[in-house]
Amino acid sequence: MVAVAATFSFLTSPLLIKPRISSTFTATVLRSGKLRRFGRSRSFCCFPMASLKSKELPENNPGLCTQSDDATSNYFLQQTMLRVKDPKVSLDFYSRVLGMKLLKRLDFSEMKFSLYFLGYEDLALAPADPVERTIWTFSKKSTIELTHNWGTESDPEFKGHHNGNSEPRGFGHIGITVDDVYKACERFENLGVEFVKKPDAGKMKGIAFIKDPDGYWIEIFDLNLVGEVTRTAS
User: Fold this and answer.
1) Euclidean distance between the first and the last CA atom of the chain, given in angstroms as a whole number
2) Which 3 state secondary structure label does DSSP give 46?
3) What is the Cα–Cα distance from 233 to 16, expressed in whole angstroms?
4) Contact 210, 196 (CB under 8 A)
5) What is the Cα–Cα distance from 80 to 117, expressed in whole angstroms?
6) Of 62, 220, 221, 234, which one has the greatest count of Cβ atoms within 10 A?
7) According to the annotation, is 149 in a ligand binding site?
8) Distance between CA 155 and CA 163 in Å, rounded?
9) In angstroms, rounded to a whole number, what is the distance separating the alpha carbons of residues 2 and 30?
10) How much of the chain, in percent, has pLDDT values that exceed 90?
11) Is the dihedral of CA 122, 127, 130, 132 positive or negative?
């Protein structure tokens, strides 16, 4: 077996090494994909650069446009909208359980509905002027828009909203990145959050799914494990 001595400062190498390994650590990478460290061998994510790119090549993705129109150069994904039954319950979940901040609330009295925009932003940077705050909110990426049609929270005939995960299936889930999926899920469990899947359940270990108060699914993962969990699909 031929070994190649390496330090982890070689981003130009034909092998792509996980970035979480220290850039000053000297190691020996074996062609078998094992990392020998201080005389011990362990599994290591080590793939040719080309293999990471191959599935994303245009020829492997019919319909993919690789030359975007210049008109779309400043587009970005700003919000995902979820309809909720009771804003009091939903705001508690998204702020207390998931740690989001209420960026902006809009009330449309004539049409009898309210919008709540939440995200992971620094509220100290939000403008005091209400119109400017709306513009500021809409300039942020990846926010959640909770839509409440007035009266659903107290309507005994209201049956709830479809979450997309039963027939006819459509919308699936949103995803939240956490520091440690196991610690996060332990906290969620202590808070009484309903689980669809715990981290060690099923075939995909290290990824969890929880439900919000309206039954929408939320995927929970961390950056330390998601690469390993999806390795065979990469």
Assistant:
1) 26
2) strand
3) 17
4) yes
5) 10
6) 220
7) yes
8) 19
9) 7
10) 76
11) negative
Q: What is the pLDDT confidence band of residue 51, given thresholds at 50, 70 and 90? A: low
* Annotated binding residue 112: no
Q: Encode 1-27 in three state secondary structure.
A: CCEEEEECCCCCCCEEECCCCCCCCEE
Any binding-site annotation on 169?
Answer: yes
Q: Which helix or strand (DSSP H or E) is residue 182 part of? A: helix 181-190
Residue type for position 78: Q
Of 194, 185, 187, 189, whose CA–CA distance to 220 is shortest? 185
Residue range 163-233, CATH number: 3.10.180.10
Domains 76-161 and 163-233 share a fold: yes
* Per-residue pLDDT, 25: 36
3-state secondary structure 63-94: CCCCCCCHHHCCCCCCEEEEEECCHHHHHHHH
Q: Which amino acid is at 86?
A: D
CA atoms of 1 and 30, how far apart (whole Å): 7
Q: Is 187 annotated as a binding residue?
A: no
Question: Where in the sequence numbering do the catalytic residues fall?
Answer: 219
Token pair for 133: 């705050």
CATH architecture group of domain 76-161:
Roll (3.10)
> What pLDDT band is residue 177 in, cutting at 50, 70 and 90?
very high
Q: Which tokens sit at 139?
A: 């300039």
Instruction: Work out the percent of the chain whose per-residue pLDDT is above 70.
Output: 77
Judged against a pLDDT cut of 70, whether residue 181 lies above it is answered with yes
Per-domain residue ranges for the chain? 76-161, 163-233
